[in-house]
Amino acid sequence: MNKYITISELSKLMHVSIHQIRYFEEKEILFPAYVDTNHYRMYGMDEIYQLSHILLLRKLNVPVQQIKECMLSYSADDYNRLLTDSLQAVQSQIDSLMHMEQFIQGILQEQQEWISQSQQDQCIPIYEIKEIPVRHFTTWITIQPNESLHARALYQHRTDQPALFEIDLHYLYTLGQVAVCVPSSNSISDSFVEKGLYLTRSFTVTSEENIAQEIHHLKEYAFQATYVLVDPIILIEKSYLSMLGTDQLHYEIQARIEVTPSKVKERNPL
């Protein structure tokens, strides 16, 4: 009985494709024990251990080009450093996956909140009063209230911000201009809005005319409720909801108000 096995049998034993075994041979990190008279590559125990070694190193993300060096000259200390580096890489991947998990959960929460509000908001627009902390922004572009953003303006004012529309753009409306801003830390911001009570409402639009109507409705509602609005009016473009939704854009409008405690209780009963 022949104690050696063919490349096909080695493939089945080690759960590795024949193509991958041949690739390792091309890179000169694995060789058959011998080639028989029928030109079959034959492999024994040494080759099985050698292939196991190669597969372990690949599992540790060692490049194929480096495996030969590892197998020929690595000491115990070298392998210790290799394992430490691999552990750090795995930890980095775990951190990245945890961040992605939180990211997806945040989008799902936004969607659920939107669905819940839209169900309540079908007949009469519903405004809420929220207590919002101070927020800092970096101004990206300044436009006129009747001006639209266009591709050329975005390019001319391009920033180092990656994944441009994966952040919620904030439009700060003041007298005579609209500042298009991105949230930022206090140390690099050039503007901020104060903490306080904000009149808010989420909505969707299909055209910019709808946005102007929403701003008008907010002012009208505040007037009827005897709230005093404090500039700026803030329009937040919900980027993820817009990209993952239909052909409508999702927004939240906010305006800081001056209101007595009794009025807040009246508008937000327990």
From TrEMBL:
TM annotation in the entry: none
Keywords: DNA-binding, Repressor, Transcription, Transcription regulation
Pfam families found in the cross-reference section: MerR_1
This protein's record includes keyword Transferase: no
Ranges in coiled-coil conformation: none
Domain of life: Bacteria
Domain called HTH merR-type: residue spans: 4-73
PANTHER family xrefs: MERR-FAMILY TRANSCRIPTIONAL REGULATOR, REDOX-CYCLING DRUG-SENSING TRANSCRIPTIONAL ACTIVATOR SOXR
Protein name per UniProt: MerR family transcriptional regulator
Species of the source: Paenibacillus taichungensis
